[in-house]
Amino acid sequence: MKQPLSEIILGIDPGTLQLGYSLVSCRAEKLELIAMGTLLLSSHKDMYVRLEKIHATVHELIASYKPTIFAIEAPFFGKNVQSMLKLGRAQGVAIAAAMQHGLPVTEYSPKKVKQSVTGNGNASKEQVWGMLKNIFALQEVPRYLDASDALAVAICHYYQLSSPVKRASSNMKNWADFIKKNPDKIIG
User: In which residues is Mg(2+) 2 bound (predicted)?
Assistant: First the structure.
């Protein structure tokens, strides 16, 4: 028998100028948006102050909402090495805050997130928002799409947790166990 999923997922879209976050409750296969927003960091010129703000914000979100899982978007590989390094630092600080609270951390590529939400790994931010709007019956477009990107990360993780393949494989130790529990699947 399938166990109902009961989790609160904290999704993060990391950035050093804008960091998106979302919290989604998953109870008995029902999704509910708890919160989403964007941490604006451009007013802080010092990179280390920005990193401290990211750490403090993730810590506050965890303390306030008590998520059980942390999902984050992986940095994409671009041509600007300095941007990549900065983004990696932001991601690392957010992950460190989650790990301090003992949360399991899962990382998803931007392409995987878009594929999970829209069916198209090359979808635009607006297309991702359109799907999220339908999933949650949202009316108001967020001012910054970093928030909806973070929501997409959380939903991507939910889909990974609730996939039939994942559920089936989590009940099996190995192939011998699968065959033992599924004799009707054997041909010949």
Answer: 73
Does the annotation mark 29 as catalytic? no
Give 3-state DSSP helix, strand, coil % of the chain, rounded to 5.
50, 20, 30
178 touches 172 (CB < 8 A)? yes
Q: Which of 107, 126, 140, 146 is catalytic?
A: 146
Residue range 5-24, pLDDT digits in tens: 589 999 999 999 999 999 99
Q: Which tens digit of pLDDT belongs to each residue from 89-102?
A: 999 999 999 999 99
For residue 36, the number of C-alpha atoms closer than 13 Å in the C-beta half-sphere is 31
Neighbours of 139 (CB within 10 A): 6
**Among the options 7, 13, 52, 149, which is catalytic?**
13
Residue 73 falls in the annotated catalytic set = yes
Q: What global pTM score does this model have?
A: 0.82
